[in-house]
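Moderator note: this is an archived Q&A kept for reference. The question asked for a predicted structure of one protein chain; the sequence and the answer are reproduced below.
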Amino acid sequence: MTGEARTGTLHDPRLVARLVEGAQRGDALAMDELLGILAPYVGRICGPVALQDGADAAQEALIAVFSRIRQLKEPAALFGWVRAIAVREALKLAGQRRRQPTVPMEWEEPPVSGDLQLASDIADALHRLAPEHRAVLMLRHVEGLSEQEVSALLEIPVGTVRSRLFRARRSFRSAWG
């Protein structure tokens, strides 16, 4: 998957820039169209990190995005800015639930029937990881960010990213097997 497909920038950058500028001016139609672009992207980020609270995290992230949209200086930076907000909200909600019992993860799109067991196994393995580990795995392997980019996004040292990735991969393998 290319970086463009992951970030949602397959949308025309000029259109996105116009929508951001409209949203910054308070244009409800621009906000609505921008919401249609951002909601699936934010959901893909929040779901694997916050698990059963993924929808709530996505909602909180989108509220934060639109309440702070005027702070975005460069429309071209939209997806990176939104990603940072989404990860923070997902980690916040996942941390709040950390010690509470979990329920099975809801999938945004139901897996193909042949993949139901695989999807269930992946969800089970993810549930066993700490939220911080799910976040680095998702950012590194789903979003395709480098360790340096993950470090900057989560505001932690690169060495911490590497150790969390190591532990997350080891824990995932252990839970998988």
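Archived answer notes: The chain has a mean pLDDT of 84.
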